[in-house]
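New to this. Please check this fold:
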Amino acid sequence: MIRHKLPLLVCAAGLASAAAPELSRPARHWEFMDAVGPRAAMLGTESGTLEAWVFPLKLLRDFRLVFTVDGRAMPAESLARRTIARPGSFSLLYSGDDFQIAETFVAPVDQPGILIRLQIDTYTPLRIDAHFTRDFQLMWPAAIGAPYIDWQDSVHGFILGADGQHYRGLVASPDAARMDQEYGTNYSASTDSSFTLGTVRGHAERVVAIAGAISTSGQSEQELAATYKALTADPARTIAATEKFYEDYLDRTVQVTLPDADLQQAYDWSRLSELKALVHNPFLGEALAAGFGLSRGGNRPGFAWFFGRDSFWTSLALTAAGDFETARAAIRFIAHYQRSDGKLPHEISQSASLVPWFEDYPYPYASADATPLFVIAVRDYVETSGDLAFLKENRERLDKAMSFMRSTFDADGFPRNDGVGHGWVEGGPLLPVRTEFYQAGLYVEAVRSMAALVRRGGDNDTATRLDQEFQAKKQSLNQLFWLPASKSWAFAIGRDGRPVDQPSVLATVPMWFGLADQERSREMIRQLADDPHATDWGMRIISARSPLYNPAGYHFGSVWPLFTGWASVGEYRYHAAQAGYANLKRNAWLALDGAGGNTTEVLSGDIYSPLSTASSHQTWSAAMVVSPLLRGLLGLQVDALDRRISMEPHLPAGWDRFEIRNVPLADGADGNVDFAFQRDDRAATLHIRNHGPSPFQLAFAPAFAPVTELAGVEFNGAAVNCPREESGPDWHARCAVAAGPGESTLTLRYRNSFGYSLAVPPPRLAESSSAMKLVSENWDGPSQLQLILSAKPGTTQRIELFGAARVAEATGAQLAPDRSSISFEIPGAGSDAVHYTIRLRLEK
């Protein structure tokens, strides 16, 4: 709880939209940067060296500027000083002795191209030249032959093309004049093409347009001319319109206002990062790309094509945040390529329609987990959005998916991985296995999801049979994969039919869905929260003490924000709130410290640094800020079909308030609901504003410490009963009310509030993990608390205390005179973290 009462928040119709997020910091010349839109992308590094794509076509690489003053040529990368990321643009700031240049990159949402705007202030005459290498090629694995480049005075730029193809590209500027063009002879060759933007003094602006046209109708030249005109006609307006598009998106989807400004900003950037993965491919349609990164001289820009499981995991974040349109597009695209036997695809290249992708390549159906995730994602989308038409559209596909999984059952009745497709782990020393715990858990949840879906469709007999299968499979899951000796969930069942004793963060996926036994899962969480598994930047896939561990092991030692998000939601589900918050914050730090608000794919297990092969803008990594915040910390769940909203918040002890706006209960803003929550040492108040014309059912169940006692609850001034639900390290007051149109108020009064808070500091680049971690929280009755911590020997640590219940005694720590904190020193020496125990006795 909190120590001081703050002014009451009012959830009013006139609430102002939050200011547009912005990230600014010194340039890191090695760091990835991107400007991505639905049709095009500029990908590069903060040195200002970039490659350009109009999906699925690569136009060029090594685009860079050169500045010349007094006859001295200076590469722009040597002068890059600062970056500024905004929702719709990315800017690099260059400075010399007497000039400054802001280079802004924008990928407009309605154009197949990139706009580069230069805003220049210079005291002495400054010449600006642009250089690049033509790299006119389709995204892997398709290819085109005989590309060419020609200068055209009519557009002041270079035209790119390929003989016999209807593909065109353009790199041009209204102020450009040709300098050099690539050539090859018997005696010399150059791949460099360049043009000058002229010499300027004082204040000036220049623009460069990079565009592409992919036409099957033979109109590519006309389309290219139209795009060039649109990009250069009014650059300021184009940039403003792009910014507004993304700002409007933030305004119309689920908004939060939090006491933690960094977490709030990371949530906003992560929503934008997800949306920017929505690609409009002229051959395939609209789909969600897995992420973006440099192609490194090839034709695969990170993971900028379409993956089944990436789309489905991300859809859970999109629906939680109220972006039903993008979630629907992501699910629908993958479902369209379901195999005839019911298996859902693993990956689809952006050039899949141009090659025999599904016949000649091993990748399209390589995984097994996309199939259960499809069923889970459809249920989540249908119930959250209320879109029963989508259920009807996909009913046959859902039946086929269930049939396929059953056709692959192992001896224990779970869909196998061996011989069918990998679960999450694709390779490395963790394989081979018969069936992953991850995969088995997804099947059990798919059964429950299918039961809910067919019941929505009116098929109660089938739903009843599925309910029975779910209960039986859930029980079998908990028996088969539990290892009493190591007190952990097995990673998998091996080919020999025995559990594989390899504790892994992948066990948190069945926890995400509440499938794993409560007490056993808490034992597992204690292991995962400790230093061998948890770093300051996220969760290792396996323990650093495992003989299989390698910090750079893609599937056997590295840290994925995906794992960290799984763990956070699973930990919140099992009431390990401090561990859940720590993992949420770790992913939030990555979003704010990464490439323009984007979160990387994978990091080293030993050092805070992305792996050299990581995709720098990874979509499901962004989703793992959104889902842990909404589904985990706030416990938000929406059922639009039954007009029901549930919230089960596990708030950090220092939070005295939060707001959630635009929680959708129907199509359009008129059906949305806003919540504003405030608390102090004695009472908590939830203000509700129902914008719709009908009431909805609200289940609100905030968490309290065991020492806290409920004194009474009122809803709109009338007393209501909120039963106490015990849940281990905390308890919940479970309130159920009907919130009518307009404003309502739910007030909970209590005695002996208490909470504590461990800092979750940002990781330090290129350094190892060092922050203190909470391993376990154990209550002996309502007033005796034991904390087991993991920290470096020789360090001094501090824990903040909150609430009206006073700490009478602290064993192993020094209590501050005002009882607002405890401090202690970890004894011993060495670099490895050790366990340390603190006991607190509370008085009411």
User: Anything to note?
Assistant: The radius of gyration is 28 Å.
